[in-house]
Structures are given as structure tokens and as C-alpha cells.
UniProtKB/TrEMBL annotation, chains A, B:
Organism classification: Bacteria, Bacillati, Bacillota, Clostridia, Eubacteriales
The organism of origin for this protein: Fastidiosipila sanguinis
Subunit-level organization: Homodimer.
Enzyme Commission number(s) from the entry: 6.1.1.15
Role, per record: Catalyzes the attachment of proline to tRNA(Pro) in a two-step reaction: proline is first activated by ATP to form Pro-AMP and then transferred to the acceptor end of tRNA(Pro).
HAMAP family listed in its UniProt record: Pro_tRNA_synth_type3
Molecular functions (GO terms): ATP binding; catalytic activity, acting on a protein; proline-tRNA ligase activity; transferase activity
Protein name, as recorded: Proline--tRNA ligase
């Protein structure tokens, strides 16, 4: 097999140069390509098909929890964007502006949406009158634009695809319930479909969304130990409602401001899939999100009966799985490398001797294990193996995450771990933004969240930076 | 029932003021709403759900014919847009331009895509090398922007949702086959799902797409007799390939320019659904495209057992159909009007006496017919009725279309029909753009297509305008 492996030999090893390995996979697995618009990527069929599966899974969960899809304009008039002060300060520096329509200069310039809170607020202020109109739970699947200076495929691009949910509620507790519900929906999807374990918690004041009262986050750990903010869910209180006059008559016929939320995940999740599961042979995809779960590769396909049998297997497998076949005249070795690069979870090899013995050889993408399978049990064996891969990928990522969270109780220790150990840290914090900023500036490590799961943890009494009384524990990490 | 019908009484009659009736339905059926960005609409849940069903149906057909989805950037650098001369002349006058990113002026201004030919061409020029790479058949579902002066919901808006397929092929005949295949895919979908019959044919040189060699179209006739261009499919020849240098080594190892196509349909189809099927009580939707096919309305729901029975019916129907229930305390009459306005194909009424008799009353949205149905046969009766509605809507539209195509053999007759009879005309034409332009200027009637179905039709020897020798027959109509 090795002599055909030109393809694979030329990608960088993830242990040698992780960023280069990442870029190699993005391009060589044909997920994405550069465009002539600096900082904007093309999603190729392989990349877009993953996004379609993410959409399908999440959209179903959104609808099951009572959300409806809409489409808001991609433009925001400058005056509308400026209505909520914190929000515009957060986003204005990275807005792309449309100033001309055809040959004419516009009377008011238009932002290409960086996010759509203000558009939803404007709509809600028109259609919400009474508590009977509440809640409204809308979502949209669109692309947004943020004029970032440095970009990386999937992780940070000037245009990116995402979904943004925007909801409006009668009471604070309804809105807070929604905020946390959507964090749960995301978490379940990440763990069950993407096989990505996360640490959940609340963002600090410094890190929360511009205009939010509270931001909740899922933080995933990549193979190189860095954090990826995989999705966020925000509780807005009545801040936007006051700025946009979203008022309703309550059950006592008194006017009240409505409570709002928003929440989103993006194509960044594809970057997460790559950086959590993939290896030096290319992409590794969890079976539940893989656009193609199986590839059938005929061996010695010029021999009588081989191609026919291969097509027969494909047809039989198609009843239960997504299957492709490669019947081109390329060598089996080339094909093996090609579909390893593309992350197809199982490869099914069928040759003359296999046919004689009524078996085929199945090779797992995750462990490279070869299994000879009786063709009478093929579909049930494939089901079993796909489930095993899904579980194995999750467990591997989970163990790695858990083994790379370090408790530190002094700033020296913090800096030492930051310099030498990939992973996250847990450390006590006084609650002051100044300490958080100083740590970031001195170490490039940022606060990821105040984790839900560890609310009671008390590693020491003191903030590791200022040594004043600690208020809470924080998770820290270098981040994408 | 009539005393509750405030809701319906306030929409304009389609025979009194068709444009106002149309706008009334768009807003009152809650399909769309105006935004603060002039000319851009909001797709509300009711409108977006129809678009989702259109997407679902067409996307399946695209994939079944070997197409793959991608996502290209929403921006096009000015220099890239200018590479194909006819194309840029066609689109530049209505392009929205991004000139600033954050606080900085861009070095090169960026068009917000009005269509994406040039982006696909640039990609294809990179990834197509050999005949082995062909065909590439990509599609994307996105919104595009054209800075139109006058706009109408769904029919002409500055931003609109659509799909655009872009393919590249080895030979002219492969590309032409694709062009016509996609026209067939569209036609089948329009007829089978949207219940909209169309006339298909080729656009004249004046009306074809900017940069295309041939444009094929589906023309639908609205209730007011006007034409709606419902979708187009273009054969580009090698024009774009030459401008963008899309060359491949052919089977003799010689360099050749590739042949291309593009094809698209948009949210304009929702406008077509309204203007073909709907009536003075509101929206009428064909069951195969309706987001909700059934609404269950309990009658005297305060009486014991009614609500329970209504929920039971809903649950039973959900196995086969998309069903909603309205158990609010609004009056049944209000509910009847509401769901007629929203175009739900069948309403199921269940009250105490019905329960006693083990029946329910089903009311068809299209004919208003009331049918008493034995609850033991409910699902099969509903299936039958939905099929009947689907067929009835198609047949009604088909008969109307066929009865309103007028053959004219002189320009006086042409003008007389144009002024007095809603519908299309068939008339002979010399093939010169000047005649076509003069007719448009003098009558506002435009050429719709040289129809496939009538290639052999010869109404006379002469062009109705210049009276010189006729080259072909054309379909004419006033258009949206």
C-alpha cells in the first residue's frame, strides 16, 4: 500500500506544524478554497455537505423546540445599527459598508450585517403588542460579514455561514430558560453528532457579547490544546427592548419591556471537527455527520465479477447508509489514501478472493483496523462499526480534554503551564476586568468561562493575579 | 360564519385592484413584511416555510441529477466582474458596492453579487485541467442583490433568495443537454408541486441573459393575464471560458475551452403561487408545497371531550400529513377566516355532534366544499382530498392559460388584444430586435419566448410589425 501514498506523504504532520497541518487538510480534503476576495473562502462540495448535515441536525432540533425560520435583509442602515450603544461599539469597527447602489451614492450607508440583533428588534417592535404575541422564536440560516484583519479557513473569515436565533419573551425567567435551553440543544448536538465534548459556562463581563447581559458558551479543546469557542447563547435582559421600544401589554394590561435572547453557531464548527478528530492522513469525520459514511473500493476490478459485486454491495448498503463507490482506473492504494484524506469513516474493499469466500474487508478510518466481514452480516456489521467509531472519537476527545485541564494556584504556575503544557487551566479570580486584561496581555491566555460544572470549586482564596479575595473559578486557555 | 369575517372583508378583491390584492395577501397572510432597508423584504415564517419546501423539492431533484452544493463569496471584486464584457454591461447598472471595511476605504471596491457567474468561472479556471475533471455541476442557495428602482414583494426586490446552478462541460452537446435538463427539472417541479403550468421556449436575443448564447425560459400566466418569467436556464457556449481561461486537455491531449451553463429560480415563485391560485379570501396553496396541509379546529371546545378528540385527530393525522391545531379561545368563525387567509388546503372541524356521530367536517380551501367524513376513514379521505385539490389547482390554471392565448396576425389586432384581453398572444416575427423594441415601446407588451411546443406554427408569412418575411412565431405578454 505504501508505494501509492504520495498523496498523504505530502501533508504536514500535526505534531510538527499544527497550523500548517490544519490548512493542508482544509485544502487537500477539498473542503474549502481561497477566493479572489481576500479573507472570504469558497465552501467546496466536501465542506458544504458537512455544513448541510450540521444544518439538518440543528434545524430539526430548533423546530422541535418551537422555533421558526425567517430571512431578514442582509443590510442594516447605519442609523439602525447605532440604536443600541454597546452593540454598535462592539461591531462597528469591523463592518463592511455599502455606499453606492448602481451609479448613485446612497443617502444613508448600509452595513452588511455582522449579526442581526437590530433587524430582529425592529421587526419585534412592530409585531409584538400583547403578552398573547409572546414568545416569538425566530431563527435564520445566513452568512454574515466581519472585516477581520487576519483570517483562517472556517475559524475566522470575513464572510461566514451561521445560524442566528433571536427570541423575545414575556419574562426574565422565560428568556433565561430559552438561553440555557439553546445551549443544551447545541451541546447535545456537538456531543452526539460532532463527537466534540465541551466545557460550558458563563463568559466574564469582558468576554460577553456586545449588548448582552449574560453570555453562555461552549468551549471545545483542540488537539493542540487551544480553545475554540464553539457556540454562544445570550440573555439580553430588556436592553435592546428599551433601545428599540419592544413593549407589550402584560396580563394586567400594563406596558412592559420584553426580554430577549440570541444564540448562534457557525461554519467554525467544521474547523473544530478538523482540529479535534483529524490526523496526519487527513480528515476524520464522525459517522453521524459524514456526508459519505462508506466508500466501496473494488480490488482487481478488471477481473470478472468484481465490479458487479461491488455495485451489488453499494446497492445493499444504500438502504441504510450514505455510500459512494470508486470504480475509476486509479490504483487501490491511491484510492485508499484519497478517501482517508477525505475522512470517510469506513472503507469497504472487495476483491476476487473475498468474493470466493463471501466476505469483504472493512477498514476503519479512526483506528485503521482491518476487519473481515461475512457478507451475510454486512449491514449489521457496518452499523456496529459506525457506532463504535462515533463513540471512540467522542471518548478519545473527552479523555484528552479531561487530561489537559490543569489546576493552578499561583501566577508563576499559570505562566509555566501556559508556556509548557497544551490545554486549559483552572484558576481563581477576583472578578475584576483589570486582572483578566493584564493576564491576557502578559501571557496571551484568555478567560474562557466560569464553568457550570465547577461552581463549587475553590482552589484557593485568592485571585492568582492580584492576590485579593477570589470571587470565582475561571477556565483559561489560549484561543482561536 | 359571516359575522366573524372582519379579517377577510378588509382585503381588496383581485378583480377590483389586482396589485393591491396581491400586496394585501403578502402582508395579511404573514408571508412577508417591509424592512427599514428600502426595497428589501423580510421573509416571515409563513413565507420562508414555503421557500424551504421549494428548496427541499428542488434540491432533491438537483442532487438526483448529479449536482453538488457549494457556497461562493457574496462579494465580487470590480475587476473580476468586468472580465466578461456583455455580462458586466448587463449587471453593473444595478450593483450595490461595498467601498469600506471598518474605518478603511477598500483598495478595490466589491460588488455584492447580483449573480455569481464570474466567481464560478474563476473557481473552474483553477480546478479544471483535464477532460477527466469534467463535468463539474455546482449549485448554491443564497441571496443576491440588484439595486432595482421599483420593487414589489417577491417579484422584484433589491435582495432576493434564489438558487444558481453553474456547470462546466467537455462539449457543446453535453452543456446543451444540461441546459435543457434543468429546464425540465424546473418544469416538472412547477407543474407537480406548485401546480403552475408554463410555456417553455427560447428567449430572443434582446431578452436573453447578459453573456449567454441561449436562454431558455418557463413563462407562467398570472390570474390578471400577465406573464411571470418563472425560471431560466442558460447555455453560455465558451464565451465565459475564453474570458476566464477555463481550458482543459481533451481526449487527444489538446487544449480546449470548456462549455458552460447556468440556471436559476427564486423566491419570485412564491409571488407566482399567490398570483396563480389565490382568491379574495386570501392565499391558496397547493397541498404538495403547503407548510401546513391541515388545520384542526375544535367547535364548542369548552364542551367535554371536544378538545381531547381534536388532539386525538391531530395526532392521528400527523402520521401522514403536516397538521396544526388552533385551540385558542378565538371564535371558530375567526379561525376559519384566519386559516383561509393563510391558505391551508384543508380545515377539519370537530364538534360535540360530530363526535357523537363519529364524523368530522372537512372544508376544502380551493372550492369551499364541505365534506362530512367518517372518522374511521379520515386519513385516506384526507389523502384523496389533498390529491384532488392539487389536481384541481393545476387544471384550473392550465385551462385558464390555454383559454387566454390569442393568435393575432396584424399589429392592429395585437394592440386591440393588448388593450382589452388579459393573456398572452401568439404572433409572427421577422427576427429583428428593432421590431421587438418598437412593439414594446408602443404597447408595453414584451416577447416572452419562441415556444418549443409551437415550432411549426405559422400564423402568417409576415412579421406583424414590419410586414417583412416572418422568421418564427413568438409568445407575447405584459410581464412582471
Amino acid at each position: 500500500m505504501s508505494k501509492d501514498k504520495k498523496f498523504v506523504e505530502s501533508i504536514t504532520s500535526r505534531d510538527v506544524d499544527f497550523p500548517q497541518w490544519y490548512t493542508d487538510i482544509c485544502l487537500r480534503a477539498e473542503l474549502t478554497d481561497y477566493s479572489s476576495v481576500k479573507g472570504c473562502m469558497i465552501l467546496l462540495p466536501g465542506g458544504f455537505a458537512i455544513w448541510e448535515n450540521i444544518q439538518k441536525g440543528l434545524d430539526k432540533a430548533f423546530k422541535a423546540t418551537g422555533h421558526q425560520n425567517v430571512a431578514m435583509p442582509m443590510f442594516i442602515p447605519e442609523s439602525l445599527l447605532q440604536k443600541e450603544k454597546e452593540h454598535v461599539e462592539g461591531f462597528a469597527p469591523e463592518v463592511a459598508w455599502v455606499t453606492h447602489g448602481g451609479a448613485n451614492e446612497l443617502e444613508e450607508k448600509l452595513a452588511v450585517r455582522p449579526t442581526s440583533e437590530v433587524l430582529f428588534c425592529e421587526l419585534y417592535s412592530k409585531i409584538v403588542r400583547s403578552y398573547r404575541d409572546l414568545p416569538k422564536k425566530y431563527n435564520q440560516w445566513v452568512s454574515v460579514v466581519r472585516w477581520e484583519k487576519t483570517t483562517r479557513p472556517f475559524l475566522r473569515t470575513r464572510e461566514f455561514y451561521w445560524q442566528e436565533g433571536h427570541t423575545v419573551h414575556e419574562t426574565q425567567s422565560d428568556a433565561m430558560e430559552e438561553t440555557l435551553l439553546m445551549l443544551d440543544v447545541y451541546t447535545k448536538f456537538l456531543e452526539d453528532y460532532l463527537a466534540i465534548p465541551v466545557i460550558r459556562g458563563e463568559k466574564t463581563a469582558k468576554e460577553k457579547f456586545a449588548g448582552a447581559e449574560k453570555t453562555y458558551t461552549m468551549e471545545a479543546q483542540m488537539y493542540d490544546g487551544k480553545a475554540l469557542q464553539a457556540g454562544t447563547s445570550h440573555y439580553f435582559g430588556t436592553g435592546f427592548a428599551e433601545a428599540f421600544n419592544i413593549q407589550y401589554s402584560d396580563r394586567n394590561n400594563e406596558l412592559q419591556y420584553a426580554h430577549q435572547t440570541s444564540w448562534g453557531v457557525s461554519t467554525r464548527l467544521i474547523g473544530g471537527l478538523i482540529m479535534v478528530h483529524s490526523d496526519d492522513s487527513g480528515l476524520v469525520l464522525p459517522p453521524r455527520i459524514a456526508p459519505n459514511q462508506l466508500v466501496v473500493i473494488p480490488i482487481a476490478q478488471h477481473k470478472e465479477g468484481v465490479l458487479d459485486k461491488a455495485y451489488e454491495l453499494k446497492e445493499q448498503l444504500e438502504n441504510d447508509f450514505s455510500v459512494i463507490i470508486d470504480d475509476t482506473d486509479k490504483s487501490p492504494g491511491w484510492k485508499f489514501s484519497e478517501y482517508e484524506m477525505k475522512g470517510i469513516p469506513l472503507r469497504i474493499e472487495i476483491g476476487p478472493r473475498d468474493i470466493e469466500n463471501n466476505v469483504c474487508v472493512i477498514v476503519r478510518r479512526d483506528t485503521r483496523e482491518k476487519i473481515t466481514v461475512d457478507l451475510n452480516n454486512l449491514n449489521s456489521e457496518v452499523t456496529r462499526l459506525l457506532n463504535e467509531i462515533q463513540e471512540n472519537l467522542y471518548n478519545t476527545a473527552k479523555e484528552r480534554l479531561e487530561s489537559r485541564i490543569y489546576d493552578v494556584t499561583s501566577y508563576d504556575e499559570f505562566k509555566n503551564v501556559a508556556d509548557n503544557k497544551p490545554g486549559f487551566m483552572r484558576a481563581m479570580w477576583c472578578g475584576k476586568t483589570e486582572c483578566e486584561e493584564a493576564i491576557k496581555e502578559e501571557t496571551t491566555v484568555t478567560s474562557r468561562c466560569i464553568p457550570f460544572e465547577n461552581e463549587q470549586v475553590k482552589l484557593s482564596d485568592k485571585c492568582i493575579y492580584c492576590k485579593e479575595a477570589a470571587e470565582t473559578m475561571l477556565i483559561w486557555g489560549k484561543a482561536y
